[in-house]
Each structure stands twice: as C-alpha cells, then as structure tokens.
Design brief:
The protein has 130 residues and is an alpha+beta fold. The protein has one helix and six strands; from the N terminus they run ββββββα. It is globular and about 65 Å long.
Length: 130
C-alpha cells in the first residue's frame, strides 16, 4: 500500500506595526478591582497577555515593578467565581494608569482568564447588537 504524505496548511500572518501590545484588550462592562498586598486598584482593560489599572495613590508603583495580583473576575450566575492570580510587570505609567504585561501565570489561571475574556466579548457583542 502507498500512503500519501500529508500536506501542511500553515498560515503565517505578519504585522508591520510598532504596537507593543500583543493581545486584544477589552474594557469590562463591570467594575473589577485588582488586589496587590493591601492596595486596591480599578481594572481599565485586560487581555490574555496584559492588563491596565488605575491607582488612587500617586507614586505607589514604579516602572518595571513586578506585582503579584489577585482579581475576582465576574462569571455568569451558574459559575462559581474564584480569584484570578498572576504576576505582572509594569511596562509604562501614564498619570495614574499603569500598563502591565503578564509575566507569570499558571495554566489554571490562564484558562480562567481566557474564559472570562471570551464571555465578556460575547456579552458586549450581544449588548451592542440590540
């Protein structure tokens, strides 16, 4: 018998851009609070690879600081919510907005984050299509 060699259908997409973000960030419709040690901040936007938050205290964090954060991501009424935890690195700061890259996350929390982002995108599409 003769076997046909499988052909690959690989697709390569190149982006010619200076944009530092490598993920599509969404702005959650609900207010979400980020916890770091004894400090709380408001989440501005989030993606699978980064997030931004707004602080109320000036000069609380510096550029390149690494922070272990915990976020209670909202779920639908049938889901039990658990805190999402990861380590972020502050890439840049604009006034009180801190823009971060996720530098350490385990697979359970990555799945939790991906699930939240997908559901939030669906929710926003549904609300805007009415």
């Amino acid at each position: 018998m003769f076997w046909k060699k499988k052909t690959s259908n690989d697709i390569t997409i190149e982006l010619a851009s200076d944009d530092r973000r490598h993920g599509v960030r969404i702005k959650p419709l609900d207010e979400i609070i980020i916890h770091h040690e004894n400090h709380q901040s408001k989440l501005i936007d989030i993606s699978a690879v980064g997030l931004s938050f707004k602080v109320t205290e000036a000069d609380l964090y510096k550029r390149h600081d690494g922070l272990d954060v915990s976020i209670m991501l909202p779920g639908d009424s049938t889901e039990v919510t658990s805190p999402f935890v990861c380590t972020v690195k502050i890439i840049y700061i604009v006034k009180t907005s801190h823009h971060c890259q996720i530098i350490q996350i385990d697979s359970k929390n990555q799945t939790l984050l991906d699930h939240f982002i997908l559901n939030e995108q669906k929710r926003q599409i549904h609300l805007h299509s009415r």
